[in-house]
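the two lines:
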Amino acid sequence: MMLEWIRFAISAVLLILGLCSFAAAVLGAYRFGFVMNRLHAAGIGDTAGIFLVVASLVVAEGLTADALKLIVLVFFLWFTSPVSTHFLGQVEYYTNPLLRKYVKKGGLPGFLRRTGSADEGKAAVPAQPKGEKDAAD
Amino acid sequence: MTVEQAYQTLFGGALIILLVLIGAMCIRSIIGPRSTDRIMSVNMLGTMTICSIAILSLILDEGYLADVALIYAMISFVAVLMMASMFVPSKPKEPELDRVSDEGDAGGAEEKTRKAEGGGRK
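prediction for all of em together
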């Protein structure tokens, strides 16, 4: 009887952590101001959230055939979520006309750089040699 | 309170929380300014739906709902890829990014981003 309650406690903790991951993903989707940042937040729910919730279900159910299916589901999501995230980032890179406001060639995006004096910001960006543009094209 | 009742309460509460989060992502997919925002919201919505189906398979004690969740994951993945591939041009070209080494133009753009951050320091 006591063992059952310990199992329930482990399952509850895992489930609550998983729901917190989903809540963090939704909060990030609302708080971040740019699609690439939102994709980063969505990755939390796709990997950590589904893993923790399914781990809770497996602890509650025990190792049965249905639990095995849920584990397969988690591994499937772990493989497909980076693919779709990468593809969405690619779509954003090719179609957003305002991207030059956010991202600079060879440097971090302006909103990712730490705030400081202007000289610090310029020093953080690596200097590029002149002939690199021809090489890149 | 037996263990079974405790499990029912726990998973029922989890389903209610997931319902609230799914509603929030629906609103996000409506107000998303760009199409990629909407596709991302649909992706997250699908993940949460898979999660609720997996919880339901345990509450209702129906094994086939795990199969349904697996199929739903595959369909959601293909749907996101199809929706995203509609927006990729057939011959994509690189976007024009600012050159960092060009002092004048890059400085102006940097000034704008700094103003947007709210710092405004020079």
